[in-house]
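Q: I have 563 residues here and want to know how they pack in 3D. Can you give me a structure?
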Amino acid sequence: MALKARALYNFQSENKEEISIQENEELVIFSENSLDGWLQGQNSRGETGLFPASYVEILHSQLGSNYTDYSSSPAGSPSHDSSLYTNPSNPGISYQGSFEDDDDDDWDDWDDACTVVETQSAPGTNGHPSPSLQYPAAYGHHQHTDYRPKPALERQDSMSSSKRGSVVGRNLNRFSCFVRSGVEAFILGDVPLMSKIAETYCIEMGSKGPQWRASPHPFICSVEDPTKQTKFKGIKSYISYKLTPSNINSPVYRRYKHFDWLYNRLLHKFTVISVPHLPEKQATGRFEEDFIEKRKRRLILWMDHMTSHPVLSQYEGFQHFLCCRDEKQWKLGKRRAEKDEMVGASFLLTIQIPTEHQDLQDVEDRVDAFKAFSKKMDDSVLQLTNVASELVRKHVGGFRKEFQKLGNAFQAISHSFHMDPPYSSDALNNAISHTGKTYETVGEMFAEQPKNDLFLMLDTLSLYQGLLSNFPDIIHLQKGAFAKVKESQRMSDEGRMDQEEADGIRKRCRVVGFALQAEMNHFHERRVADFKRMMQSYLKQQIIFYQRVSQQLEKTLRMYDNL
């Protein structure tokens, strides 16, 4: 039965099986059941095809009934940038469902009896679990239990709450990322302290403010040799990637679904960190050479950001992913990561902050400035992505065709000069004919050039679209924490709260504030390095390209010298 739905985000189709949808567009869904994270339906223009389930909400006509929301939040849409290299403007989570056959098999060297679906709870900010599941003492137990095999992250929010400890009022919107991430419970002191915390992440004061303490053992990791492999006597096919961490210099081989598992563990654990989005999955054509090469390039960028992050690079699950070669140990490590208790709001308990005093108003002003900056950067990144994508299309299509037309016109001139032999000049005719062939060659050079310059630019822009899309929810956590501090101080001033309890809320707010500022500083450091490299590479490749074009033209010009 067809259902009505509304698009939550823009989605640009990549191939003929998919259709484009616009934010707030009314859609018709042919079936409410998603297949590997995709729905089939019709947009307002009458086009029929596939689009991500997490980009839409299905509207039920019954009065008071809940709608099916595959997105879980504005941060719940998958990272799916298209062949046009465009992303939705606000995708936070990028759990990418697909029709890839390797998502349906038996996980190879993984534990077949345990999947991400079985071990993950509902998502909050950046994919973290609902606080109703993490801290049952602080929240009610009413939860939705309708699990689907894909996507693994489903909304299971509690609609009720019971006060525990603090008398500061809780947010009425139980679906806000501040609540679902568990940060509200942390600020109000409802996150239980662990008797033993094995991991700690330190924040130091640097020249530009709080910053994550550098990893004591920095390393890099290469991503190479995407290789098509098969199993079940060729029934199943997949691509494996060779990963070689510099700290052990011993390669491991991982499939994309292994990356996907790791990515969801990262979202589940790190509340206030902008986890880089994985490159997108694709409904069809996943074994095509261009798609495999594009995915490899983007996995290299993703891995570079992971290894450069002082916190993410030290995560035990990430180290296990990069280093484990033994199948038995692999399963044990996978289970250990999935049973990790220091996730979501509990992760905040592992952060050690400096003793330096920071005025909360100054912090709020700094966060507001970063919010305005990130919004402007996101807009400009999207603008450059659209311009560069259009330029790619022109290189591959328009420019090549125009140069071919010019070459054919020169060839026609040469052929016409052969029509009257007494006055024909073979040298001139050959030179003009060669000029036509030269411009045809130049057209092919234009068509191939994006692989050398624009693709790297678009890869970098895509990565930053994902990183920037994470920050609105992370900033919202800080805003929510600020609000609780102000409310608690007002209540303390009115004598309705002990000052000690208000001081505890302020102290825990400092943890969130320091963590966000450290993440902001890391983002700026990477931004400077990445965009410097991107621009240098683009300009160098442009110079090389036009030098090659110039050489072709100069060679052709010399043919006219001795006529």
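Q: Anything worth noting?
A: The first strand starts at residue 3 and ends at 7. DSSP finds twelve helices and twelve strands in the chain.
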